[in-house]
Every structure is written in structure tokens, then in C-alpha cells.
Write a structure and sequence with these properties.
254 residues, alpha/beta, eight-stranded mixed β-sheet, 8 helices, 28% strand, globular, disordered C terminus, NYN domain-containing protein, NYN, RNA nuclease activity
Length: 254
């Protein structure tokens, strides 16, 4: 598969390269980019493709794919939440988190709470699982990293209008920092966030296809501790592996 083009860029700012003078290449300033993923918002957008292998996604590689060449990705943050009621899903979620951490992604994890909803007409009731802390973790990550001056460009990956408050805070408190709204695949830019964004990019399926984690990922729970191996769930094997009926170790060169 050929490397896809950069994500669609709806802004007007040009992408600059290295300058030259008298035959010598001059160094150029590369902006520091930080990418913040609304985990469940991205997950549901990817899930809509009905291609499970796309869920085993390397968020660092994807961050590099959506940023232009005059930026360097210095920070990648993923905000999600664990739901312990389903043990098999919980195991996949934990393994995915460890695989992301092995790639240098900072994972901020919330939780779910159970609530009761019902119909006033018939009296029927049911339980709801409600995610907690995800949006707050994302907002605090952006705010604290901006305060610490860890980025010049903030990429917000979400179509959830609840993040408009975070976008507004960033642009009012740090007007010189650029805010890029990143649309999850198949989603439209959220109009409430859009009015604070400097530009918009879209994630396309081609970016997902080229940004998958390998079948085997090594990680350490401690800096100097022994390494362990995370194996991609069989349900997330790419189609060509399932068709051949055997597994293939993919080397992660990232």
C-alpha cells in the first residue's frame, strides 16, 4: 500500500520547507505539534466502517500523518475510559492502551458509571453506562500542556461540541497557539469548535490503513523492567491474514 497523502487541509496557511541560500541549506524552525484524541469519538467513527482491523490503530503514526512537514509531533494524548462490566472488551482495551504506551502515547483513562433511565409512559426502566472523566481529561491535558508551553500547534481530534469550551479557552488564553480541528473519518467539523479553529483537517480511511499497529508489540511496565509482548486480537487481523489462515509478525519500525 502506498503512503497516503497528508490529511485534507481546509486552511489557507502554506506548508513551508527548507530554505536555500548560495547553495547551502539553511535550518528551519519546525513548530511543535501536540495531538489530543477524544478516544470514544474516534472509535465510533472508525467502527462505522465495519472493518474491525482499523481499530488496532497506531495513534502516533496517525498524528504524524495528519501534520505537515514543517511540524514535529512532540506529544500525543489519548483520552478514553474503561468499562469493567465486559471482561473481554476490557482486556482488549487494556492491551490497546499498553500498545499505545509502547509507542509513546500518553493515555488518560476515565471510568463508567451505571445509571437508571426509564419511560414515563410505560414505566419500563433500563440501565445506562455513562462515561466519566474523558472530556475533562482531554480539556485538562490541553490546558496544562498549553500552560507549560509544550506545543505551538494543538490538534483536537473530535466531533463532539462539548470540546468547544476547551477550544475557546485555548484561543482566548493563548491566542498565538494554533488550534487545528481534526475531523474523525466520516464526520463533519463541529460548528461550535469550528469558530475557534485556525484550520481543519480530515482523517480519511487511507490514513487509518497506513497507521495500524503491528501484530506484536513489546512494552515494559517499568523503565528497566523485563519486556512483555502484546498480541493483536485475532478479530483485528487485517483481511489478508484472515484469508491466508495464518499469522504474520509485523515489525514496527516507527
Amino acid at each position: 500500500m502506498s503512503q497516503p497523502d497528508k490529511a485534507k487541509n481546509h486552511g489557507t496557511a502554506p506548508v513551508t520547507g527548507r530554505g536555500q541560500r548560495g547553495g547551502f541549506r539553511l535550518p528551519f524552525f519546525r513548530k511543535r505539534a501536540a495531538v489530543y484524541y477524544d478516544g470514544f469519538n474516534l472509535y465510533h467513527a472508525v467502527d462505522a466502517y465495519k472493518r474491525p482491523y482499523l481499530k488496532w490503530l497506531d495513534l502516533k503514526a496517525l498524528a504524524q500523518a495528519i501534520s505537515p512537514s514543517d511540524e514535529v509531533v512532540k506529544r500525543v494524548v489519548w483520552c478514553s475510559a474503561f468499562r469493567p462490566q465486559n471482561k473481554s472488551k476490557m482486556k482488549r482495551h487494556e492491551d490497546y492502551m499498553r500498545a499505545l504506551q509502547a509507542r509513546g502515547v500518553l493515555c488518560r483513562i476515565g471510568h463508567f458509571v451505571s445509571a437508571i433511565d426509564g419511560c414515563n409512559a410505560c414505566g419500563h426502566q433500563w440501565h445506562l453506562a455513562i462515561e466519566k472523566q474523558g472530556d475533562v481529561n482531554l480539556a485538562l491535558s490541553i490546558a496544562s500542556d498549553a500552560e507549560d508551553n509544550l506545543f505551538d500547534v494543538c490538534y483536537l481530534v473530535s466531533a463532539d461540541g462539548d470540546h468547544a469550551a476547551t477550544a475557546r479557552y485555548l484561543k482566548e488564553r493563548f491566542p498565538k497557539k494554533e488550534l487545528v480541528l481534526v475531523c474523525p473519518p466520516g464526520r463533519y467539523p463541529n460548528k461550535h469548535i469550528l469558530k475557534f479553529a485556525d484550520r481543519v483537517v480530515e482523517i480519511e480511511r487511507e490514513h487509518l490503513e497506513a497507521s495500524l499497529l503491528p501484530q506484536m508489540t513489546k512494552y515494559r511496565t517499568r523503565l528497566l523492567g523485563p519486556s512483555s509482548t502484546i498480541e493483536r486480537p485475532e478479530a483485528y487481523d487485517p483481511p489478508e491474514l484472515r484469508e491466508k489462515g495464518h499469522l504474520k509478525v509485523v515489525v514496527n519500525n516507527g
